[in-house]
Write a structure and sequence with these properties.
By secondary structure, the protein is an alpha/beta fold. It has 10 helices and 20 strands. The protein has 2 domains: about 15-215, Alanine racemase (TIM Barrel), CATH 3.20.20.10; about 235-355, Lyase, Ornithine Decarboxylase, Chain A, domain 1 (Beta Barrel), CATH 2.40.37.10. The protein has helices at about 15-30, 40-45, 45-55, 65-75, 95-100, 110-120, 170-180, 195-200, 330-335, 340-345, and strands at about 10-15, 35, 35, 60-65, 80-85, 100-105, 125-130, 135-140, 150-155, 190, 205-210, 235-245, 250, 255-260, 265-270, 285-290, 290-295, 305, 320-325, 350-355. The strands form 5 sheets. Strands 3, 4, 5, 6, 7, 8, 9 and 10 form an 8-stranded parallel sheet that branches. Strands 1, 12, 15, 18, 19 and 20 form a 6-stranded mixed sheet that branches. The longest helix has 15 residues, at about 15-30. The protein is elongated, with a radius of gyration of 23 Å. The mean pLDDT is about 95.
């Protein structure tokens, strides 16, 4: 009896690689508390599995974006770890909110006033905008902030250009944040994300908060040296069919690609609904047995076609083609995007497989 071929694409998530990357940033932080950003479901890789691994490594501070993420994380981690909610307090604080013991990040004077009135002196963080012009209290307002009745556990800011270490805004933001810290001398301070940690101890303050680097993405812009981070997420897409295509025949929607010579073409179960950007048409490829298989034809919703003519062994249905992994940052460059976007766009029907030591 013939067994059905595998048809579901997987993302294999190496928890040992995650641990190595956390240790890398903890070592760079050199004695400073090392937190972890696990917002957006741990950058698409599954907060419920990722966060306990980080906690077991000694991580005691976590950052999420939304209140509901914080609730889910508290249910998973239990009491103990500090969970900061970057988008601030909700506007309907209830006893249930306090039960989850979440720490809101106050981003405006309105947030401060609301927490002063409703926060029952529960801990909060104070976020200052030192140059990114996104969330945060304006730097110029820092000296006039009324912090009465606030129990502050952290002051923080966020670097706009840390991915480009030589950018002049980095040193300006650093100077501004140092100035703010002189007004809050007894409160821990945090400025550095993954790229900020790499820029050196001057940016570390009391707490660093790596994000993309934990998941194997290079936090530095293209052209900067690789940090040698361990690849965490590898897409494994099954081959559905292999066919011979004659020279001159077109492949895929729009007939935009015509075979320049006879080719072996594998159709795989991986498309833009699974998170493979259509822009990967332009130079993207998958890997089989360490050999590159170029994408040919347009990427479809559920399928992509690859030229497997040069693969040394015959490719057959059921074989797996790898994407991302050590190629994550190069694939992001090919798609004219960043590793963050590739990871957070991994589709919900891609099965998450968690491994340790590659097994």
């Amino acid at each position: 009896m013939l067994l059905p071929l595998p048809s579901q694409t997987e993302v294999r998530i190496d928890l040992s690689a995650l641990a190595k990357n956390y240790q890398y940033f903890a070592n760079l932080s050199d004695g400073v508390t090392t937190a972890a950003a696990v917002k957006a479901d741990a950058y698409g890789l599954g907060m419920a599995k990722i966060a306990p691994v980080l906690r077991d490594l000694g991580c005691e501070h976590f950052f999420v974006a939304h209140h509901y993420e914080g609730v889910l994380l508290r249910q998973k981690l239990g009491r103990g770890p500090v969970i900061y909610v970057l988008h601030g307090p909700g506007r309907s604080v209830t006893g249930d909110d306090f039960e989850h013991d979440l720490v809101p990040v106050l981003n405006s004077v309105a947030d401060i006033r609301y927490w002063q009135k409703n926060g029952q002196r529960k801990p909060a963080a104070l976020h200052f905008d030192t140059g990114i012009n996104r969330l945060g209290i304006n730097y110029e307002q820092a000296q006039n902030i009324d912090t009465a009745n606030l129990n502050l556990s952290l002051i923080m800011s966020h670097l706009a250009c840390a991915s480009s270490p030589q950018h002049a805004l980095n040193s300006l933001q650093l100077a501004r944040f140092k100035d703010i810290c002189t007004q809050f001398t007894d409160i821990p301070a945090s400025l550095a994300n993954s790229a900020g940690i790499v820029m050196g101890s001057e940016y570390h303050f009391d707490l660093t908060r790596p994000g993309i680097g934990l998941y194997g993405g290079n936090p530095l812009d293209r052209g900067h040296a690789s940090l040698g981070l361990a690849p965490v997420a590898t897409i494994m897409a099954p081959v559905l069919q292999v066919r011979s295509v004659a020279a001159g025949q077109s492949i895929g929607y729009g007939a935009r690609f015509c075979a320049p010579k006879p080719m072996k073409v594998a159709t795989i179960a991986y498309g833009y609904a699974d998170g493979l950007f259509r822009a990967a048409n332009h130079g993207g490829h998958g890997w089989i047995d360490g050999q590159a298989a170029p994408i040919v034809g347009r990427i479809s919703m559920d399928m992509t076609t690859l030229d497997v003519s040069a693969i040394e062994r015959p490719v057959k249905p059921g074989d797996r083609i790898a994407f991302m992994g050590a190629d994550l940052n190069d694939l992001a460059d090919t798609c004219q995007t960043i590793a963050y976007e590739l990871l957070t766009n991994i589709g919900p029907r891609v099965k998450r497989i968690y491994m340790k030591d590659g097994l």
